[in-house]
């Protein structure tokens, strides 16, 4: 697996071009792209790659793309993204077939989700999971103890305290749209 997600880091998550412009200027080395369409995603990913950063496209948010495996092939050929993010097991499997790093986004909403997470991971075999919301240190610890793949804490990580708590609980990385948290990337995230 790509070492991009294996080291403690802050991941810039972007929802529009303004966010992307700021992320490209940040010290964050990985960018999660949560906007775009099939006409402009190649350009968006190229901006990230030209800045020397890793680009991951959240395929569930990609406008004009049906949730079919062909969109993964399209991203692999047209955009040269490093990987994808999806909540759908079929998309994760397709990404692996096209040698893209796969991140499965999992919303931890109840104990049923927790008790089934190892089965879900075994079925889709993602390279890592993005656990949402990411401001739950106790639950992050439970999940990192249960699965044997990197865990990214994402969603509702609002400040340095949330980020440090997630890292201390075992998260490999933090994904956030909060630009103030992106500034933590300048410190090198030396919390583990």
Descriptive overview:
It holds the Pfam family G3P_antiterm. It comes from Photobacterium gaetbulicola. This is Glycerol-3-phosphate responsive antiterminator. It is a single chain. By secondary structure, the protein is of the alpha/beta class. It has one domain (9-185): Aldolase class I (TIM Barrel, Alpha-Beta Barrel), CATH 3.20.20. It is 39% helix and 20% strand. The chain contains eight helices and eight strands, in the order βαβαβαβαβαβαβαβα. It has helices at 17-25, 41-50, 70-79, 89-97, 111-124, 137-146, 160-168, 179-182, and strands at 9-14, 30-33, 54-58, 83-86, 101-107, 128-132, 151-154, 173-176. It has an eight-stranded parallel barrel with strand order 1-2-3-4-5-6-7-8, surrounded by seven helices. The longest helix is centred in the middle third of the chain and has 14 residues, at 111-124. The chain is globular, with a radius of gyration of 15 Å. The mean pLDDT is 92.
Strand content bin: 15-25%
Per the principal axes of the C-alpha atoms, what is the gross shape? globular
Strand order of the largest sheet: 1-2-3-4-5-6-7-8
| Helix fraction by DSSP (H/I, runs of at least 4) | 25-40%
Radius of gyration: 15 Å
Sheet with the most strands, sense and barrel status: 8 strands, parallel, barrel
- The helix-and-strand class reads alpha/beta
Number of strands: 8
Number of domains: 1
CATH topology: TIM Barrel
Assembly annotation? single chain
Residue runs with pLDDT of under 50 for 5 or more positions: none
CATH architectural type: Alpha-Beta Barrel
Q: How far from one another are the termini? A: 20 Å
Spell out the CATH superfamily. Aldolase class I
